[in-house]
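User: Sequence for Phage major capsid protein below. C-alpha coordinates please.
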Amino acid sequence: MTIALTKSEMISKLQKANAASTLLVTDQAEAFIFDIIQNSNTLKKLNVQYKDQTSGNIEALEAQTRKTRKHTYTAGDVPTGNFDANKREVPYNVVKVFLDMWLSNDDVWYILRQRGQNMETALTSMMQEAFALDMQDLLFQGDTAATGGSDDEFLKILDGFVKKMKKSTKKLNLGANLPSPDDLIKLKKLIPSKYWNHPKFNFNWIISENTKLDLQRAIIARPTAWADSVIVDGELKKLSGLPVEIVSTYPDNFIALTPLSNLQPVFTRDVRYNMTSTGVECVKRDATYHIGFAYLDAVINNPECVAWMDYTEPVGSLAMTE
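Assistant: C-alpha coordinates for Phage major capsid protein:
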Protein backbone atom coordinates (compact mmCIF):
# COMPACT_ATOMS: atom_id res chain seq x y z
CA MET A 1 0.00 0.00 0.00
CA THR A 2 1.34 3.43 -0.89
CA ILE A 3 1.03 6.67 1.03
CA ALA A 4 0.61 10.19 -0.27
CA LEU A 5 3.28 11.87 1.87
CA THR A 6 6.95 11.94 1.00
CA LYS A 7 9.40 11.63 3.88
CA SER A 8 10.24 15.35 3.79
CA GLU A 9 6.52 16.19 3.77
CA MET A 10 6.00 13.90 6.76
CA ILE A 11 8.75 15.65 8.74
CA SER A 12 7.32 19.04 7.83
CA LYS A 13 3.88 17.92 8.98
CA LEU A 14 5.35 16.64 12.27
CA GLN A 15 6.92 20.02 12.92
CA LYS A 16 3.64 21.82 12.24
CA ALA A 17 1.78 19.38 14.49
CA ASN A 18 4.10 20.12 17.39
CA ALA A 19 1.99 21.03 20.42
CA ALA A 20 2.86 22.03 23.96
CA SER A 21 -0.03 20.08 25.48
CA THR A 22 -3.11 18.25 24.30
CA LEU A 23 -5.86 17.39 26.78
CA LEU A 24 -8.21 14.96 25.08
CA VAL A 25 -11.90 15.74 25.44
CA THR A 26 -14.12 13.14 27.14
CA ASP A 27 -15.06 11.10 24.05
CA GLN A 28 -11.50 11.19 22.70
CA ALA A 29 -10.02 10.19 26.05
CA GLU A 30 -12.36 7.23 26.47
CA ALA A 31 -11.68 6.13 22.88
CA PHE A 32 -7.92 6.47 23.46
CA ILE A 33 -8.10 4.23 26.56
CA PHE A 34 -10.48 1.83 24.79
CA ASP A 35 -7.98 1.36 21.96
CA ILE A 36 -5.20 0.72 24.50
CA ILE A 37 -7.32 -1.96 26.16
CA GLN A 38 -8.12 -3.59 22.82
CA ASN A 39 -4.37 -3.98 22.23
CA SER A 40 -4.06 -6.23 25.31
CA ASN A 41 -5.06 -9.88 25.40
CA THR A 42 -6.84 -9.89 28.79
CA LEU A 43 -7.77 -6.31 29.79
CA LYS A 44 -10.43 -6.21 27.08
CA LYS A 45 -12.21 -9.13 28.79
CA LEU A 46 -12.39 -7.39 32.18
CA ASN A 47 -15.03 -5.08 33.62
CA VAL A 48 -13.32 -1.78 32.77
CA GLN A 49 -14.60 1.34 34.55
CA TYR A 50 -14.29 4.89 33.18
CA LYS A 51 -14.50 7.64 35.78
CA ASP A 52 -14.40 11.43 35.80
CA GLN A 53 -12.98 11.69 39.34
CA THR A 54 -9.59 10.46 40.59
CA SER A 55 -11.19 8.78 43.60
CA GLY A 56 -14.65 7.57 44.48
CA ASN A 57 -16.72 4.40 44.65
CA ILE A 58 -17.87 1.65 42.31
CA GLU A 59 -21.13 -0.20 42.86
CA ALA A 60 -20.34 -3.71 44.06
CA LEU A 61 -21.31 -6.93 42.34
CA GLU A 62 -23.68 -8.82 44.60
CA ALA A 63 -25.38 -12.20 44.33
CA GLN A 64 -28.76 -11.28 45.75
CA THR A 65 -30.96 -14.36 45.88
CA ARG A 66 -34.16 -15.45 47.63
CA LYS A 67 -35.54 -11.93 47.69
CA THR A 68 -38.95 -12.87 46.25
CA ARG A 69 -41.81 -12.81 48.77
CA LYS A 70 -45.43 -13.93 48.87
CA HIS A 71 -47.57 -10.90 48.23
CA THR A 72 -49.73 -9.62 51.03
CA TYR A 73 -51.02 -6.15 51.67
CA THR A 74 -51.89 -4.38 54.87
CA ALA A 75 -52.94 -0.75 54.93
CA GLY A 76 -49.98 1.42 55.82
CA ASP A 77 -47.32 -1.07 54.60
CA VAL A 78 -44.17 0.61 53.24
CA PRO A 79 -42.24 -1.21 50.44
CA THR A 80 -38.89 -2.46 51.77
CA GLY A 81 -37.13 -2.86 48.43
CA ASN A 82 -35.48 -6.14 49.42
CA PHE A 83 -33.57 -6.52 46.17
CA ASP A 84 -31.26 -3.60 47.03
CA ALA A 85 -30.87 -4.53 50.69
CA ASN A 86 -27.23 -5.63 50.29
CA LYS A 87 -26.06 -2.76 48.13
CA ARG A 88 -22.51 -1.67 48.90
CA GLU A 89 -19.74 0.31 47.24
CA VAL A 90 -16.07 -0.37 46.57
CA PRO A 91 -13.57 2.51 46.74
CA TYR A 92 -11.04 3.31 44.03
CA ASN A 93 -8.16 5.78 44.00
CA VAL A 94 -6.28 6.13 40.73
CA VAL A 95 -2.56 6.74 40.30
CA LYS A 96 -1.12 9.05 37.66
CA VAL A 97 1.24 7.30 35.24
CA PHE A 98 3.08 8.34 32.12
CA LEU A 99 4.83 6.74 29.18
CA ASP A 100 7.32 8.60 27.04
CA MET A 101 9.14 7.51 23.93
CA TRP A 102 11.35 8.75 21.15
CA LEU A 103 10.15 7.84 17.65
CA SER A 104 12.76 8.21 14.95
CA ASN A 105 11.53 9.78 11.75
CA ASP A 106 12.87 6.77 9.83
CA ASP A 107 10.75 4.40 11.94
CA VAL A 108 7.64 6.52 11.53
CA TRP A 109 8.20 6.66 7.80
CA TYR A 110 8.64 2.88 7.62
CA ILE A 111 5.45 2.26 9.60
CA LEU A 112 3.50 4.67 7.42
CA ARG A 113 4.61 2.74 4.35
CA GLN A 114 3.86 -0.67 5.88
CA ARG A 115 0.50 0.11 7.44
CA GLY A 116 -0.81 2.62 4.98
CA GLN A 117 -2.07 4.78 7.86
CA ASN A 118 -2.16 8.53 8.05
CA MET A 119 0.54 10.06 10.21
CA GLU A 120 -1.64 10.90 13.21
CA THR A 121 -3.12 7.39 13.38
CA ALA A 122 0.31 5.77 13.09
CA LEU A 123 1.80 7.85 15.92
CA THR A 124 -1.19 7.30 18.20
CA SER A 125 -1.28 3.54 17.58
CA MET A 126 2.44 3.21 18.39
CA MET A 127 1.89 4.95 21.72
CA GLN A 128 -1.22 2.88 22.47
CA GLU A 129 0.52 -0.44 21.74
CA ALA A 130 3.35 0.40 24.13
CA PHE A 131 0.90 1.61 26.80
CA ALA A 132 -1.17 -1.60 26.49
CA LEU A 133 1.72 -3.90 27.37
CA ASP A 134 2.69 -1.90 30.43
CA MET A 135 -0.84 -1.28 31.71
CA GLN A 136 -1.80 -4.96 31.68
CA ASP A 137 1.48 -5.88 33.37
CA LEU A 138 1.05 -3.21 36.04
CA LEU A 139 -2.65 -3.86 36.69
CA PHE A 140 -1.95 -7.54 37.36
CA GLN A 141 1.52 -7.58 38.91
CA GLY A 142 1.87 -4.17 40.56
CA ASP A 143 3.09 -4.25 44.17
CA THR A 144 3.85 -1.07 46.11
CA ALA A 145 6.03 -3.12 48.48
CA ALA A 146 8.15 -4.72 45.73
CA THR A 147 11.86 -4.97 46.61
CA GLY A 148 15.00 -6.54 45.27
CA GLY A 149 14.27 -6.46 41.55
CA SER A 150 15.32 -4.36 38.59
CA ASP A 151 11.67 -3.54 37.81
CA ASP A 152 10.76 -2.29 41.29
CA GLU A 153 10.19 1.29 40.16
CA PHE A 154 7.59 0.07 37.69
CA LEU A 155 5.90 -2.48 39.96
CA LYS A 156 5.68 -0.09 42.93
CA ILE A 157 3.36 2.30 41.08
CA LEU A 158 0.25 0.56 42.46
CA ASP A 159 -1.04 -2.68 43.96
CA GLY A 160 -2.39 -4.91 41.19
CA PHE A 161 -4.95 -7.67 40.99
CA VAL A 162 -2.58 -10.46 42.04
CA LYS A 163 -1.54 -8.79 45.29
CA LYS A 164 -5.16 -7.95 46.10
CA MET A 165 -6.38 -11.47 45.28
CA LYS A 166 -3.77 -12.90 47.63
CA LYS A 167 -5.48 -11.11 50.52
CA SER A 168 -8.27 -13.67 50.24
CA THR A 169 -8.19 -16.33 52.96
CA LYS A 170 -9.80 -18.83 50.56
CA LYS A 171 -6.54 -20.46 49.55
CA LEU A 172 -4.55 -23.68 49.24
CA ASN A 173 -0.77 -23.77 49.58
CA LEU A 174 0.36 -26.94 47.82
CA GLY A 175 4.10 -26.75 48.46
CA ALA A 176 6.15 -28.76 45.94
CA ASN A 177 3.09 -30.45 44.46
CA LEU A 178 1.28 -29.73 41.24
CA PRO A 179 -2.47 -29.23 41.70
CA SER A 180 -4.51 -32.42 41.56
CA PRO A 181 -8.13 -32.78 40.37
CA ASP A 182 -9.11 -32.96 44.03
CA ASP A 183 -7.28 -29.68 44.77
CA LEU A 184 -9.27 -27.90 42.08
CA ILE A 185 -12.53 -29.18 43.53
CA LYS A 186 -11.47 -28.16 47.05
CA LEU A 187 -10.73 -24.65 45.82
CA LYS A 188 -14.08 -24.37 44.06
CA LYS A 189 -15.86 -25.38 47.26
CA LEU A 190 -14.27 -22.44 49.09
CA ILE A 191 -16.42 -20.06 47.02
CA PRO A 192 -19.84 -19.50 48.67
CA SER A 193 -22.54 -21.47 46.87
CA LYS A 194 -24.69 -18.37 46.22
CA TYR A 195 -22.22 -17.20 43.55
CA TRP A 196 -22.37 -20.36 41.44
CA ASN A 197 -24.81 -20.34 38.52
CA HIS A 198 -25.56 -16.67 39.12
CA PRO A 199 -25.69 -14.68 35.83
CA LYS A 200 -23.24 -12.04 37.08
CA PHE A 201 -20.60 -14.53 38.19
CA ASN A 202 -18.95 -16.63 35.47
CA PHE A 203 -15.84 -18.06 37.08
CA ASN A 204 -12.48 -18.54 35.38
CA TRP A 205 -9.16 -20.06 36.31
CA ILE A 206 -6.55 -17.33 35.81
CA ILE A 207 -3.02 -18.57 35.19
CA SER A 208 0.24 -17.81 33.37
CA GLU A 209 1.48 -19.54 30.23
CA ASN A 210 4.06 -21.54 32.21
CA THR A 211 1.47 -22.69 34.74
CA LYS A 212 -0.75 -23.76 31.85
CA LEU A 213 2.13 -25.85 30.49
CA ASP A 214 2.66 -27.46 33.92
CA LEU A 215 -0.99 -28.44 34.12
CA GLN A 216 -1.27 -29.47 30.50
CA ARG A 217 1.85 -31.62 30.68
CA ALA A 218 0.55 -33.37 33.79
CA ILE A 219 -2.88 -34.01 32.28
CA ILE A 220 -1.38 -35.54 29.15
CA ALA A 221 1.06 -37.67 31.19
CA ARG A 222 -1.65 -39.30 33.31
CA PRO A 223 -2.71 -42.82 32.29
CA THR A 224 -6.35 -41.79 32.69
CA ALA A 225 -7.64 -38.48 31.36
CA TRP A 226 -9.30 -35.79 33.45
CA ALA A 227 -12.93 -36.03 32.47
CA ASP A 228 -13.63 -32.36 33.19
CA SER A 229 -10.47 -30.91 31.61
CA VAL A 230 -10.48 -29.90 27.96
CA ILE A 231 -7.50 -29.63 25.61
CA VAL A 232 -8.33 -28.32 22.13
CA ASP A 233 -5.70 -28.19 19.39
CA GLY A 234 -3.01 -28.72 22.01
CA GLU A 235 -4.24 -25.86 24.22
CA LEU A 236 -5.75 -26.17 27.70
CA LYS A 237 -9.25 -24.66 27.60
CA LYS A 238 -11.00 -25.93 30.74
CA LEU A 239 -10.11 -27.22 34.20
CA SER A 240 -12.64 -28.80 36.52
CA GLY A 241 -15.35 -27.70 34.11
CA LEU A 242 -14.39 -24.00 34.10
CA PRO A 243 -12.69 -21.93 31.37
CA VAL A 244 -9.02 -21.01 31.64
CA GLU A 245 -7.76 -17.45 31.08
CA ILE A 246 -4.05 -17.23 30.18
CA VAL A 247 -2.59 -13.85 31.16
CA SER A 248 0.69 -12.91 29.51
CA THR A 249 1.70 -10.70 32.45
CA TYR A 250 1.10 -12.98 35.42
CA PRO A 251 3.20 -14.82 38.02
CA ASP A 252 3.99 -18.49 37.52
CA ASN A 253 2.76 -21.20 39.93
CA PHE A 254 -0.21 -19.06 41.02
CA ILE A 255 -3.78 -20.05 40.16
CA ALA A 256 -6.70 -17.74 40.90
CA LEU A 257 -10.38 -18.63 40.72
CA THR A 258 -12.68 -15.66 40.21
CA PRO A 259 -15.03 -14.16 37.59
CA LEU A 260 -13.23 -11.93 35.10
CA SER A 261 -15.93 -9.34 35.82
CA ASN A 262 -14.65 -9.22 39.40
CA LEU A 263 -11.39 -7.66 38.17
CA GLN A 264 -12.04 -4.01 37.41
CA PRO A 265 -9.42 -1.74 35.86
CA VAL A 266 -10.37 1.86 36.62
CA PHE A 267 -9.33 4.68 34.27
CA THR A 268 -10.20 8.34 34.44
CA ARG A 269 -11.09 10.30 31.33
CA ASP A 270 -8.34 12.82 32.10
CA VAL A 271 -5.87 11.73 29.41
CA ARG A 272 -3.14 13.92 27.95
CA TYR A 273 -0.95 13.29 24.94
CA ASN A 274 1.97 15.57 24.09
CA MET A 275 4.59 15.53 21.38
CA THR A 276 7.41 17.78 20.26
CA SER A 277 9.50 17.81 17.12
CA THR A 278 11.52 20.95 17.81
CA GLY A 279 14.64 21.61 19.82
CA VAL A 280 18.27 20.56 19.60
CA GLU A 281 17.66 17.04 20.90
CA CYS A 282 14.94 16.35 18.33
CA VAL A 283 17.15 17.62 15.53
CA LYS A 284 20.16 15.60 16.73
CA ARG A 285 18.10 12.41 17.04
CA ASP A 286 16.10 13.04 13.85
CA ALA A 287 13.11 12.06 15.95
CA THR A 288 10.01 13.27 17.75
CA TYR A 289 9.40 13.00 21.49
CA HIS A 290 6.02 11.71 22.70
CA ILE A 291 4.58 11.50 26.21
CA GLY A 292 1.19 10.32 27.41
CA PHE A 293 -0.42 10.67 30.85
CA ALA A 294 -3.20 8.49 32.26
CA TYR A 295 -4.74 7.60 35.63
CA LEU A 296 -5.54 4.03 36.67
CA ASP A 297 -6.28 1.67 39.55
CA ALA A 298 -6.92 -2.07 39.96
CA VAL A 299 -10.05 -2.97 41.95
CA ILE A 300 -11.26 -6.35 43.18
CA ASN A 301 -14.99 -5.73 43.26
CA ASN A 302 -16.02 -8.62 45.52
CA PRO A 303 -13.24 -10.29 47.57
CA GLU A 304 -15.68 -13.03 48.61
CA CYS A 305 -15.55 -14.29 45.01
CA VAL A 306 -11.79 -14.94 45.03
CA ALA A 307 -9.99 -18.18 45.84
CA TRP A 308 -6.43 -19.10 44.94
CA MET A 309 -3.69 -21.69 45.23
CA ASP A 310 0.04 -21.68 44.70
CA TYR A 311 2.82 -24.24 44.44
CA THR A 312 6.57 -24.43 44.05
CA GLU A 313 8.09 -26.17 41.05
CA PRO A 314 8.13 -29.92 41.81
CA VAL A 315 11.46 -31.63 41.18
CA GLY A 316 11.22 -34.45 38.64
CA SER A 317 7.42 -34.51 38.71
CA LEU A 318 5.58 -34.94 35.43
CA ALA A 319 2.22 -36.21 36.60
CA MET A 320 -0.39 -35.07 39.07
CA THR A 321 -1.27 -37.19 42.03
CA GLU A 322 -4.77 -37.74 43.25
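The two ends are 58 Å apart (CA to CA).
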